Structures
1.
Amino acid sequence: MIPEAAFEAPSPAANGAARGGQPGHRAAMLTESAVLDRPRERLWRLGAAALTAAELLAVLLGTGDGRRDALEVATLLLKPANGAVRRLAARPPGELLLTPGVGRAKGARLLAAFELAARVSREERPAVPRISEPADVVKLVGGRLRDLAVEEFHLLALDTRSRVLRDVLITRGLLDSSLVHPREVFRAAISEAAAGIILVHNHPSGDPTPSAEDRAVTRQLVAAGQLLDLPVYDHVIVAGDRFVSFATAGLL
């Protein structure tokens, strides 16, 4: 005997599942893993370089057209260009609007992104400062530090060729070992994939002579760098037009 339940009309949700589901039903049934697989979530989790061209375009589009999600619309965009972003960018603007789900607002976003990419490719890469002696450190940051009314403690993250990857302000105020904690210093260095670091701070008094606290902080950071295999190459104190290098003075 066929059970009576077999003759019951299917629910709207069941109908939606059988047809592939309306956008609202699909969104309600998304699992956590499906959410993590969305292009925007993948971008933040894995980085933009891990995304395909279609996924990157989907992030730009933001939404689909009610029948297709953003990734499906992005795939349609790439189809006439044989999957090549360069060919897509070269298409006449009006042709972008022929893709279902791409209106003037989304088309404008795409055109702006293509133009930004073109400008980036034309811009010259800025010269990266290289540190070969303490005077180079002073030349790089001395102008900003020498006349400050309070102490600032900076970290210069260097690559394997002693080029400055980033200048990071660690703390502002009186130099104290409780403020300049190895965790804060080396977190910045590790995030920049630095091969080594140089410490820099200023003395508003105009006297660059290292204090007992300067020496204690430096010893602490040098020891931490040795444990992390991330050497501290120098600690430079800037005071007015004068400076002291711990490396040159044999204090490291």
Note: DSSP finds twelve helices and five strands in the chain.
2.
Amino acid sequence: MADILMPKATAVWLVDNTSLTFEQIADFTGLHRLEIKGIADGDVAAGVRGADPIAAGQLEHGELTKAEGDSSYRMTASKPKYAKLQGTRERGRRYTPLSRRQNRPDAIAWLVRNHPELTDAQISRLVGTTKKTIESVRERTHWNSPNIKPTDPVTLDLCTQVELDSQVAKASARREQMEVAGQVNSQDDTLKPVEKQDADVNAPTTLAELFGKPRTEDKS
């Protein structure tokens, strides 16, 4: 049984216009058999106007014909006309639960270090943050910079590995351009797989160690 719109109104129409059994209607609409019986007796859904599932595109006429001819047959609802479009609709900015928002600077630092080819917009989509926050982490002006530890956003459950790989693949051409321009070293140790980075005891663990401490003015 697939979810259908207005199940009770659909059940009213099927009771009034078909010879389907209570079990068949209950299975198709997701309602209880006794509720269907109540509709037939006039005790349930009084005043509810029936909704034709065939006209609404939720049921093929052939399915109804088969069900009326065989009481053991269970009808299959038709898929919504725009189901595929709804499934591929572009999502807005990712919502991140409050409990994990404090981890976003760590994820941003990891992405900036390991995938400099990603644009701010891509990072924003991956971890659900703002360009202002990304810039503050990159420029070491974030209020918590000394304590930021670059961490894989997949490990932090801020995005999936599939989503990360997809964004990296989209930015692959940009990375090649950066390597040609000398902005990124293709043999840079910071670009090793995360498991190798973790095994490197000399690898920087905080943003301050990664990029170096900001220069302080000489007060002497």
Note: The longest helix spans residues 7-17.
